[in-house]
Amino acid sequence: MLDIKLIRENPEKVVDGLRKRGIPVALSEDEIQKFSAKQANEASMIRKLLELEESRRRIIKESDELRNRRNVVSEEIGKLKREKGDAAGLLEEMKGVSDRIKEFEEKLKSIEGQSRDFLLNIPNIPDESVPVGRDETENVMVRTWGEPREFDFPALNHWDIGEMLGIIDFDRASKIAGARFALMRSAGAKLERALMNFMLDLNTSKGYTEVFPPVLVNRESMTGTGQLPKFELELFRIADPEFYLIPTAEVPVTNIHRDEILREQDLPIYYTAYTPCFRREAGSYGKDTRGLIRQHQFNKVELVKFVKPEDSYAELEKLTADAEDILKKLGLPYRVVSLCTGDLGFSAAKTYDLEVWLPGQQRYREISSCSNFEDFQARRANIRFKRDNKKGTEFVHTLNGSGLAIGRTVVAVLENYQRKDGTVAVPEALRSYVKLDVIG
Q1: Residues spanned by CATH 3.30.930.10 within the chain?
Q2: Which of 314, 316, 407, 429 has the smallest count of CB within 10 Å of its CB?
Q3: Which member of 281, 366, 387, 431 is catalytic?
């Protein structure tokens, strides 16, 4: 979440950042009145937060004055008692002061709860290097790698290839679970498992520590990374006892260090993890209804970093390069896109998307998002570090990226390595894992 000090001392910067995201927000009552009734509540959130902060500071000031008064009078009461004087009046006054302090404490608790609720629903501020734009049509291409493959035969979609080879069964998966599920068979299952191991081996060779975290997490973990409270409808929830199925390994891996103070010498920390992921895909009705692109359950290998603030943007470039290296070793053409302000995820300050070329669809599709969250997640999850020979603590910066989404990598392999005879060549980097040169 955002630093309340930043909102208090530089509200114009926060408002400007939110407006770049396309969020209606204003500071003055006149500006708020210009929005529709539906937008007015969201538009006034920073103003309401500032009003709560002013109330909080006033109550703290008055409480401190009362406590100081209580300390002074306590000494007077003690003196009167020692001198056999009458302290009844002062004792009655102190009872009123104590009641008043208790009342202030209850008000303060309520105000701090309201402020936290506001803060948890306000997205991160885009970094100055993020291109300003309304939506994905205004994202900026940074670079490309490889040439899109051309075939001397009509390129097929992965679902047709999978059905012809008998390696992906959507019909039986639908019978078992419903729409947006897939059953991988034979060489398809081997390919999925091979990609998982290949990615983990490559990532660990670069200094990432492999972890295998829980895929059921509590509400605090989801709140720490920014999925809750804003995106509850997009998550699969188990009611009793309350757990959430993770939408990405980012959630459990980032929460490894929740409520911890790390040492400066511990940083940077790199983790990689394979997990199944679960998403309701709320709002995606009619999108990618066929194939592996948009599933309720899918596999992914994740990259997560905890770093010092001054290093985080250099670490973002390295993280993105690590994800790119997987695509390069698989020989899959791709491009790197810098997301514009209107397309940024809720918690991200800056994001690069890697988009792989899919010949069967004749388009690039996202296969990885690499993001710097700065201290946004660390504030929510209370992840700090202490510099050597320096008082106090600071929030770490967190980063994460897909390294890679395995189902979408299967799609890319099948479509880019398909052959005229209906078989699919196995990328050289995967042959020792799949134990096949050709799927057919």
Answers
A1: 136-439
A2: 314
A3: 366
| Active site (annotated) includes residue 408 | yes
**Contact call for residues 147 and 332 (beta carbons, < 8 A):** no
Q: Terminal CA-to-CA distance of the chain, rounded, Å?
A: 50
Which of 269, 316, 298 lies closest to 195 in space, CA to CA?
Answer: 298
Place of tokens 């409520």: 259
Report how far residue 109's alpha carbon sits from residue 113's, in angstroms, rounded to the nearest whole number: 6
Q: Catalytic: which of 369, 371, 380, 415?
A: 369
Is residue 366 flagged as an active site residue?
yes
The percentage of residues in the chain with a pLDDT greater than 90, rounded to a whole number, is: 83
Alpha carbon distance 432, 190 (integer Å): 11
DSSP-based three-state secondary structure for 235 = coil
pLDDT-derived band at 143 (thresholds 50, 70, 90) equals very high
263 is catalytic: no
Check whether 80 has a pLDDT greater than 80: no
Active site residue 28: no
pLDDT of the residue at 288? 83
Q: What is the distance between the alpha carbons of residues 402 and 191, in angstroms, rounded to a whole number? A: 18
The catalytic position among 47, 180, 279, 380 is: 279
Q: Find, among 108, 107, 164, the residue nearest to 419 by Cα.
A: 164
**Identified catalytic residue from 21, 365, 384, 408:** 408
3: closest CA among 374, 336, 420?
374
Question: Tell me, which fold does domain 136-439 have in CATH?
Answer: BirA Bifunctional Protein; domain 2 (3.30.930)
Least-confidence region, from 67-81, 98-112, 314-328, 415-429? 67-81
Give residue 72's pLDDT: 80
Least Cα distance to 225 among 92, 90, 86, 399 occurs for 399
291-334 pLDDT per residue, tens: 999 999 999 999 999 999 999 999 999 999 999 999 999 999 99
In CATH, what class is 4-120? mainly alpha
* Average pLDDT along the chain: 94
With H, G, I as helix, E, B as strand and everything else as coil, classify residue 55. helix
Q: What is the location of CATH 1.10.287.40 in the chain?
A: 4-120
Q: Is the pLDDT of residue 85 over 80?
A: no
Catalytic residue among 70, 100, 258, 294: 294
The widest CA-to-CA distance across the chain, in whole angstroms, is 108
Q: Which two three-digit tokens encode residue 42?
A: 């969201």
- Within 10 Å of residue 217's Cβ, how many Cβ atoms? 20
Distance CA 127, CA 106 (A): 38
